[in-house]
Write a structure and sequence with these properties.
Strand content: 25-35%
CATH superfamily of the largest domain: Transferase(Phosphotransferase) domain 1
Structural class: alpha+beta
Radius of gyration: 31 Å
Number of domains: 5
Oligomer: single chain
Shape: flat
Helix content: 10-25%
CATH class of the largest domain: Mainly Alpha
Strand order of the largest sheet: 30-34-35-33-32-31
Amino acid sequence: MANRDAPVNGKKSRLSLQKDGNLVLIDAGQHVIWSTQTQSKSSSLELKLKNTGNLVLALQQQQQQQHVLWQSFDYPTDTLLPNQPFTRNTQLVSSRSSTNYSSGYYKLIFDHDSILRLIYDNLETTSNYWPDPKIRTYYAGRFEYIDARTAQLDSYGLFNSTDGFSFTTTDYGLGPQRMMRLDTDGNVRAYTQAGIGMKWEVTWQAISQICRIDGTCGPNSLCTYSNYGRKCSCLHGFKMAHSQDWSAGCEPDQSMDCKEDGCDFIALPYAEFYGYDIRFHVNTTLDACKKDCLHDNNCRGFNFAYLSDKGFFCFLKSSLHNGYQNGVYSTIYIKMPTRLASSFNNRKAVGRSSFTCPRPVVTLLARPYEKINDTRPLGFMVVVGCTIGFMEIVCILFFWYCSSKHSSTVDQLYFPASTGFRKFTYHELKKASHNFSEEIGKGGASVVYKARLKDNRIAAIKKLKNSGEQGEDEFQAEISTIGRMNHMNLIETWGYCAEGNNRLVVYEYMENGSLANNLRLGKLDWATRFNIVLGTAKGLAYLHEECLEWILHCDVKPHNILLDGDYNPKVGDFGLSKRWDRGGSDQWKFSVMRGTRGYMAPEWVLNLAITSKVDVFSYGVVVLEMIAGKGPGDGGLIDWVRGRWVDRVEDIVDASIRGEYDPVMMENLVRIALQCTEEDSEARPTMSNVVSMLLQIL
């Protein structure tokens, strides 16, 4: 990828070969942001994409020979293709996530000692974790200080490196397409494209225990294994430092100062924190290690274990990085204030970060009374005090009931802290929208108005019609959901209003309105439609798999996909959404059906388990609607497409885009959409799989 950390604008950018022999990438603003830095006046200069996957800029010479000026094989991003040389001058750098292709923290390089290594490299620390740094290089089968530093995966699935490392894929042999990639989790894997749907399947990986990868969960956190793969958890007394990124680790939830009541230790069995050792004690005791750590202000804790040849030993730690649990024959003792250590529950080794705010408890204030010299009996005072206390309780409960009835609930008072965006007054929103005069959209439960805020931002204000219990539930669901999201294909919300019976949500104004309106007017060309298909998939994949609390949208349809000035899609309207704890089961519980008729998955009607695949089904219906230019009706669109597209894809394509699309690309897109709308939820792909398939057909 060229210029991966500052990519070009999605519209009106171009790659061009200039007359001076320089291949340049020009942004929409007409600025050169990347080039090959080559020069040639020759008329035989050509740019060619070879069957190997190598993009080559070369001069054609006599006898079919080439003089290569530049080739993409010399500048890999995160992937090696068969027969692509990997040298001392190249490196693989992971992406930040499955939908964010900017530079991540993991690298595959030849180190200065000629060893092929995986390293973790962020702004604060750099460490190598493969081959295992605990094992000496020679015993790991590697040879140091070799003059040549090259490695290559051949067409048969055999990988060889000059440092002695090699592997063979499980499907060794000539034939299938292969690649080797440094994935976002820091693991290197070989993939083969095979099976139904030609999916990429793992045929080798460098590290089997993914918790052993440095930086997996960040400092002050612990990586553990569960039925759902790896899981990151904050240590006792810590909370997540960044709500969307575990690599940032955890930060103290309260003061860790031991000056007031001293320090103590909590023990986490079968756990280890690798690196950052201050000292190493052999043949020692647990009390001696504790004493040493307590007298050292830089000590954060220590690993304590037993080896048959060394007796008991401990490593004192200056920082708690690279923590993992399970399969480790040692115990980590973490130093913290005595008051905090005393609240630690040994049966629950680590505390999992949660966004759930505790419901406020109504507590009576202790009121001081002046002591009155009174000779009346003590019993009379007790009766009076109890009466006053009872009346206060009644008044507080009555006030709480009235407040909740007028929707000024205690929960609403906590919205700013939990969501992180602004609370507007009804008066300023009424003024910004000129008394709600310009209506730009309408739904069954809301009306949307255009407004200009005080800072001159153009906003869309959604005003809920229903102020009853259902409307209140949708309002609270939406503002508690959107505060946890940050993605280019999700609507950006700026605030809300909750005054009396008024419930309003303020979000960015989308110049081109909803996808539904644009489809009805026939304004979208084929390239724009495919861009909307891909962007919507990325937004839903983020909701399902990348948020700290995964989110089920429940109402994916063209009316809820909005388009900005460049027709980039953003998924909106989270009134029916459902949050789900990542550590829970892959099934949601619902008391009633959610969604819009025609876009709802069969699970809703058949009372089957509800998973993220219901959003996948709705997405598939939306894609078919964009292809065919007709609505789903009562589900007839899916059967109509299945019955007609087998013979000719042209028979199902909207007349307004005929002649614009590539037939092979369109056939692949129809296949993906039909796979998303399979009746059996298990047969449907995940949204991240959909994104991968869409990128492959580009």
